[in-house]
Amino acid sequence: xxxxxxxxxxxxxxxxxxxxxxxxxxxxxxxxxxxxxxxxxxxxxxxxxxxxxxxxxxxxxxxxxxxxxxxxxxxxxxxxxxxxxxxxxxxxxxxxxxxxxxxxxxxxxxxxxxxxxxxxxxxxxxxxxxxxxxxxxxxxxxxxxxxxxxxxxxxxxxxxxxxxxxxxxxxxxxxxxxxxxxxxxxxxxxxxxxxxxxxxxxxxxxxxxxxxxxxxxxxxxxxxxxxxxxxxxxxxxxxxxxxxxxxxxxxxxxxxxxxxxxxxxxxxxxxxxxxxxxxxxxxxxxxxxxxxxxxxxxxxxxxxxxxxxxxxxxxxxxxxxxxxxxxxxxxxxxxxxxxxxxxxxxxxxxxxxxxxxxxxxxxxxxxxxxxxxxxxxxxxxxxxxxxxxxxxxxxxxxxxxxxxxxxxxxxxxxxxxxxxxxxxxxxxxxxxxxxxxxxxxxxxxxxxxxxxxxxxxxxxxxxxxxxxxxxxxxxxxxxxxxxxxxxxxxxxxxxxxxxxxxxxxxxxxxxxxxxxxxxxxxxxxxxxxxxxxxxxxxxxxxxxxxxxxxxxxxxxxx
Length: 558
Description:
Blueprint: E1 10-13, E2 48-50, E3 54-57, E4 60-67, E5 77-83, E6 90-96, E7 107-115, E8 119-127, E9 133-140, E10 151-153, E11 173-174, E12 180-181, E13 187-195, E14 198-206, E15 213-214, E16 220-222, E17 228-237, E18 253-261, E19 266-275, E20 280-283, E21 292-293, E22 300-307, E23 312-319, H1 325-331, E24 333-334, E25 336-337, E26 341-345, E27 352-356, E28 364-370, E29 373-375, E30 379-382, E31 390-398, E32 406-407, H2 414-420, E33 432-438, E34 446-455, E35 458-466, E36 481-485, E37 494-501, E38 504-509, E39 514-519, E40 531-536, E41 542-552
Parallel strand pairs: 1-3, 2-24, 32-34
Antiparallel strand pairs: 1-4, 2-4, 4-5, 5-6, 7-8, 8-9, 9-10, 11-13, 12-13, 13-14, 14-15, 14-16, 17-18, 18-19, 19-20, 19-21, 22-23, 23-25, 23-26, 26-27, 28-41, 29-41, 30-40, 31-37, 31-41, 33-34, 33-40, 34-35, 35-36, 37-38, 38-39
Subcellular location: Membrane; Vacuole lumen
Organism: Phaseolus coccineus (Scarlet runner bean)
Protein name: Acid beta-fructofuranosidase
């Protein structure tokens, strides 16, 4: 990967909720909310460049890669914000910055682990004086401080380093995971790496979380996948939506191995089992390669953590800009985080389900509920009464005339299909969905929609997010995204939830079985000039069985 994105997210929790600390004086008042693209309820710092979160255990602690000197990559420190609810955040002083030979050229990504006695520890990647990637250890200076303001690095850093003996590529050795404790009492941690084009998760073991030994074999590797950044490894229950601690193993769980693939700049995951005796990950049938992505839009460097307070696993991801670097510098900031998502294994066992954490619903205001109705082909339905640039919309469709589905003669990449069959191209069943950030006269709009095809005697549902007409500023990235949604339109309604926040469109299809995040920067459909519609541009009618929308209040993100 390029060093530009090697900084992942890391997140941590503490075990009791405390009062609000005073904000870091250098970060609380340096931006203007007059900016039309600045988000209102997605996490982002007041200015400059970020990419990635970390997690700690009981207040929510968000550690993230941050450039205090500008809206471009460089000068990276570990900034630190805290929250009681994953929605409202207060910034603190940076937690980790360059100060040792082992990180003098950069403090990159890592993860936090809770040790016995509720003692947090961070393993993170540093760039040493030889520009090698090495892994370092830091612990809180004062465990009685609930905000963990100060961190002390081990004087014996680095704890893991490339040598001639281990043949590790010193420029491809980064992003240690949250560690897990084996039944033998030894800690395990993964570090992303590659050999040639074979991507891998190197495995290290430790008795005391201080001295680490590399295992003979990686936990898992895949030829041709390239560098694995920001690996993540965690168990999920076979049945149910509850989360479990990272160290849990047994017949009642499956394991998820995730990697941010540097060559593709996307986050992929595999479902399988963990053989603790051999320290090997065994993919389930059909998961021999990275096939499934967390999010089929703009989404990278994600990290999960186990929220022991609410017994759930939470996923956070970084979303970079689709605007030009010149525009990023002009607006003074770059990069946001998605809304935290609860994540669990679908009942089919074949994929994960993601859904915005319930706390975000506290921001909902001024509900609008439209009655069930038919939406005729070629028609628009304006959704009035909500703030169109700052909204949460849930809509469900029912399709009766499935015989009119377009025939798909051969399998095609969903993103290519969505790009060639955008919202303006009509078919029997679709496109139908939402038009967001729509200007008067529809010179600008972003469409999020379904299409239904008939393929080899079954129906296929595709979810697309079409940014091709999102802005008259053609310097933006206007890529269209798409994915297959594993729903059966014969048996299920087609549901779509979309979070709209000034320059981000975060969509969840099929009750969280497919996710697409997009960044858009309209020139006309901004502030009170933006409009919101349900639409059907297919030739057949569809039935809206539910349409609920809310304006979203602004979160406290100092």
